[in-house]
Specification:
3 domains; single chain; 249 residues
């Protein structure tokens, strides 16, 4: 076997494994919009460059039929690739979106590594005490009735840790959709003021036979970025997110 053939086989195997990893990432843990907003392309580039490109290149360099240390060399390369893949996937798992929480006038995307286990255990329902593996669970954060706890959470918010990081405040979205709609922004106004940025929203409305007047928009915070969440103005149903900053100039 030539080194080129060995490297080609290695490339095909690596590409197959990487494709399976990406399929799990995008098909299960990361709905496409959240993947884009979470900077998934950067992580994916690193993952693919190590596991699909560097491995086969190393095989190309070290492979030589009859070489005494060939098995050892190939084993080391394979172990390095496996270690890189395991590390990369662990980062993906830790950063997966688990909750989409409405607080105040916006939604917040909460990742798995944002929530401490002791705080997660305080969730009022089972679905708020576990971290999702299949995309974020929709919820509304409601301040607790206890005055002392309210003050503690208020001080925490002033320090930069708002209600979205406290599962004890999570409540059913459908039962609290009026809270979401109360401070929503006008879709009509967004499309009027920023027709170019709002084009994807307008296209979605047209494709789904909806009027702009029957929907509202809310900011959706992902890290330091803001996206737009489109919501039904009558029922509060969460419809879709768009890579548009609703407050952009």
């Amino acid at each position: 076997m030539t080194r080129w053939k060995a490297s080609g086989i290695h490339l095909l195997l690596s590409a197959g494994i990487a494709a399976a990893a990406v399929a799990v990432m995008l098909g299960v843990m990361y709905p496409w919009e959240y993947f884009q907003a979470s900077g998934g392309f950067k992580l994916l580039t690193i993952l693919l460059s190590v596991d699909v490109v560097i491995g086969p290149l190393l095989t190309l360099l070290v492979f030589k039929t009859g070489k005494p240390s060939l098995k050892f060399d190939l084993t080391v390369i394979a172990l390095l690739q496996i270690a890189a893949l395991v590390y990369g996937m662990s980062v993906v798992v830790d950063a997966r979106p688990v909750f989409l929480v409405h607080v105040g006038d916006r939604f917040h995307l909460v990742r798995a590594n944002d929530l401490e286990d002791d705080l997660l255990a305080l969730g009022k329902e089972e679905r708020f005490r576990t971290k999702s593996w299949t995309g974020p669970r929709l919820t509304v954060a409601i301040k607790p009735r206890d005055v002392d706890r309210q003050q503690e959470l208020m001080m925490s918010a002033l320090a930069g840790t708002d209600l979205n990081f406290f599962p004890e405040t999570y409540s059913d979205y459908e039962q609290n959709s009026d809270v979401v709609l109360a401070r929503a922004l006008s879709t009509v106004q967004l499309l009027k003021n920023r027709p170019e940025d709002g084009a994807p929203i307008a296209a979605y409305l047209e494709d789904n036979g909806r009027e702009a007047s029957s929907t509202v928009v809310l900011p959706l915070k992902v890290g330091i970025n803001f996206l737009t969440a489109l919501v039904d103005s009558r029922t509060g149903e969460f419809l879709k997110i768009f890579s548009v900053d609703p407050w952009g100039e």
